[in-house]
Design goal:
This protein has one domain: P-loop containing nucleotide triphosphate hydrolases (Rossmann fold, 3-Layer(aba) Sandwich), CATH 3.40.50.300. A hairpin with a 2-residue loop joins strand 4 and strand 5. It starts with 12 loop residues before the first strand and ends with a helix. Helix 3 packs across helix 4. The protein is of the alpha/beta class. The chain is 35% helix and 20% strand. The strands form three sheets. It has an eight-stranded mixed sheet with strand order 4-5-3-6-2-8-9-12, with helices on both faces. Strands 1-7 form a two-stranded parallel sheet. A two-stranded antiparallel ribbon has the order 10-11. The structure holds adenosine-5'-diphosphate. Adenosine-5'-diphosphate (ADP) binds next to helix 1 and helix 7.
Length: 264
């Protein structure tokens, strides 16, 4: 009888130049993950942390637009890349290396190689935390991070409707199975406050909070649908950086405080 080969042992390499590495993930696309990742990063910055933001969404990078970067990262030795600095954050994204409208028509192995380059060949310097904006789903990028990169925790962002929550449950189980600690869940687009002062729960009520309870994960907070969050994203000035006293920035700050505590 032929013997089954032993499972491959992966080495988890830390990202150099940072104390902590945090994944911001969503199982489904379009739930506001990148917007939350970037605003959370600047909320952590306002708590005194030196931040780096790595956009790991190779197929649909959004960091260059979210922080309005137009320059390409430089390389002094032709091998390692120097992250681009914006708003006192060090930033890296595949979107900085290719033209804005160039589609990335890549198979899995090329994505894995790009992720390895962005985690091992970027000269992050003197950072407290690197926030990684993950692509949606449970594919090659997630697996590469879970198996080959030393991460300190993951945050899952979702909207509260059933269709998104189904994917969230898959996302939670993926991180649990691969041994990545989930620091908590965030409910984005939780409600919309109308001119009449009422909260409209457009995508249903408390779905993310209930899912957190069901899987015994921490619930980190609700974020409303707010036009200022959308417009600040479109103009490349994250709300938590440009208007830290905004009511929505304060909600991000509360979430950032919980994350800071759970990392220490
Ligand atoms: P994802 O990364 O999950 O694909 P994005 O962060 O790109 O989602 O967000 C999708 C769109 O929704 C963007 O136009 C963004 O500005 C907007 N958006 C995200 N969260 C909110 C929110 N809480 N309120 C208003 N607009 C939001």
């Amino acid at each position: 009888m032929s013997k089954k080969p032993p499972p491959k042992q992966f080495v988890k390499n830390p990202i150099q130049g940072t104390k902590f590495t945090l994944l911001v993930s969503s199982a489904k696309g379009g739930v506001g993950k990148s917007t939350v990742a970037v605003n959370l990063a600047f909320a952590l910055q306002s708590l005194g942390l030196k931040i780096g933001i790595l956009d790991a969404d190779v197929y649909g990078p959004s960091l260059p637009k979210l922080v309005n970067i137009n320059e390409k990262p430089k390389s002094e030795d032709g091998k390692a890349l120097v992250p681009v600095e914006k708003y006192d954050a060090q930033c890296m994204s595949m979107g900085l290396l290719v033209d804005e409208q160039t589609p990335m028509i890549w198979r899995g192995p090329m994505v894995i190689s790009a992720i390895k380059t962005m985690t091992q060949k970027v000269l992050w310097k003197d950072r407290d935390i690197i926030i990684i904006d993950m692509p949606p789903g449970t594919g090659d990028t997630q697996l590469t991070f879970a198996q080959e990169v030393k991460v300190d925790g993951a945050i899952i962002v979702s909207t509260p409707q059933d269709l998104a929550l189904l994917d969230v449950k898959r996302g939670i189980q993926m991180f649990d199975k691969t041994g990545v600690r989930i620091l908590g869940l965030i409910d984005n687009m939780s409600f919309f406050k109308g001119d009449d002062g009422k909260d409209y729960k457009i995508f249903g009520e408390s779905g993310v909070e209930k899912t957190a309870k069901e899987f015994k994960k921490e619930f980190l907070g609700h974020l409303p649908i707010h036009q200022d969050l959308r417009s600040s994203a479109d103009t490349g000035k994250p709300l938590t950086y440009s208007d830290p006293d905004h009511e929505v920035s304060k909600l991000f700050l509360n979430i950032a405080k919980k994350i800071k505590i759970s990392l220490n």
